[in-house]
Amino acid sequence: MPELLWKSYIDFEVSQGETDKARQLYERLLERTVHVKVWLSYAKFELNAENPDNINIELARRVYERANESLRTAGEKECRVLLLEAWKDFETEIGDEDKLDKVLAKMPRRVKKRQKIVSEAGVEEGWEEVFDYIFPEDEMVRPNLKLLAAAKNWRKKQIIPEIAESDIVTEQAKESECAEESESNSECA
Length: 189
Prior knowledge:
- The chain is built from eight helices and two strands; from the N terminus they run ααααααββαα.
- By secondary structure, it is mainly alpha-helical.
- It folds into three domains: 2-107, Serine Threonine Protein Phosphatase 5, Tetratricopeptide repeat (Alpha Horseshoe); 108-140, no CATH class; 142-188.
- It has a two-stranded antiparallel sheet.
- A hairpin with a 5-residue loop joins β1 (109-118) and β2 (124-134).
- The longest helix is centred in the C-terminal third of the chain and has 40 residues, at 145-184.
- The N and C termini lie far apart (91 Å).
- It comes from Pararge aegeria.
């Protein structure tokens, strides 16, 4: 509800031709909320605002980039999907192929997962299927466990020959000691 009040105030400033004041209001509102509708409204505002150098497209693109990062940090996956869909439509209509490809590279995969249903009393009541989104940007940040496992196996293989080699050296030392002792004594076990 407070967002509606803010939006009315922003619309009033826009109707008065106060673009800079409206931009400041959007920035102040975004300090208080990360709601996707606010971000989309801000991007639309930047696209339609009157700017002296006609840099509306770049300003709107910056808003989309900031919104994506903000929603990523907040962990709002569904909102982030809505934002990316709107950004894709924006680049399809206005942008070029390179910009559209960059947005498409950010689009998530939709994955079906199963999760347990637990009642308020803590009793398991079965399973449900849920959809989750896996974003390419988030996968890059996550540690690559397969690579770490492969490195660990490689290190084991490096250590085993060293151990085997040290055992051979130890065996050879024992044999040479035994040979020396056998010359001086009668037998070596």
